[in-house]
Request: fold
Amino acid sequence: MIYLDSAATTMQKPASVARASAWAMEHLASPGRGGHRPAMAAAETAFACREEAAKLFHVSQPERVVFTFNATHGLNIAIGTLAKPGSRVVISGYEHNAVTRPLHGIPELELRVARGPLFDPQATLEAFRRELDRGADLAVCTHVSNVFGFILPVEEIAALCREKGVALIVDASQSAGCLPLDFEALGAAFVAMPGHKGLYGPQGTGLLLCGMDPKPLLAGGTGSESRLQTMPAFLPDRLEAGTHNMPGLAGLLEGLRFVRRRGVENIAAQESLLIRHLGEGMERIPGARVFLAQDPMAQSGVLSFQIEGWDCEALGDALGERGFALRAGLHCAPLAHESAGTLEQGTVRASLSVFNTHRETEKLLRTLRTLASGGGAPS
Reply:
């Protein structure tokens, strides 16, 4: 199988990730729940994971790196802290349901979309400027579209939010580990990310970088301030109720170390090179519609496409039968498809990691040429 669905999860991991998770199952107890060696070793592992993330994302205080179950969990905390009934919230036209559904669940919230054409960062920035000039309490922006790989200008949007005095939440689900991300320079209120995508950690892990004091989403035991019947006031305990996923965190620590050793810039360059090769090859296939940015700096290692005469779900199935793991449909992001004009039919998406190769993209191109020419096409 050729795995090309890393925007959903990087199934191919460094070997050290699985080894660390297996080791944690046998050697780690719960951090903060005892002074014995297994509990202390768990606390050391958890803190090492925070420190590694703080180094990678330039967070000056490791305790402001909070463990979550995934990016959706972190986004719900961030949105629940900053968005209230009646709040005026500006979002990009490429947000995932992990952003839009929590916002739609808040009564009387005024939600405005800063719309811009696909792969046009300047238009997106100007759309945010127009909406923020109308007055806003909060902005939420994805760093990279999970459907199209469109890299949104979050640094410029963050600067605009600081100028206007508007809090910003960044969804880094598709950029963490794949693109440089400087939390201190960004000045965002929160940045949420999964552990299981570009950070190469296990599923069920995530990080929330906190630039402000958050409102807890869950309440319960923390191993600290146990006499209180309210959550501790300090981070990270304020947000980490219940037992930690230590096998997940041990694996995430190794994933973070892998990314730091490899270098985010090197990862970005490798993925960009492969996605350009794949996209330019698809553009030469008759009947193919390929969502490839003219400017390579505007797109990450995610590529959506369609083939004339093929329903995207049927095409995804046909590729699956031929040994390719991709994703077809709306990718939990109908707003992004609406912005790009693909809401009715959806797309097939190929998404890369550092474990993909030029040979794999060549094999996909050969298979697509066969399918587009009628070989195996649906009747």
Notes: The domain at 15-262 is CATH 3.40.640.10 (Aspartate Aminotransferase; domain 2).
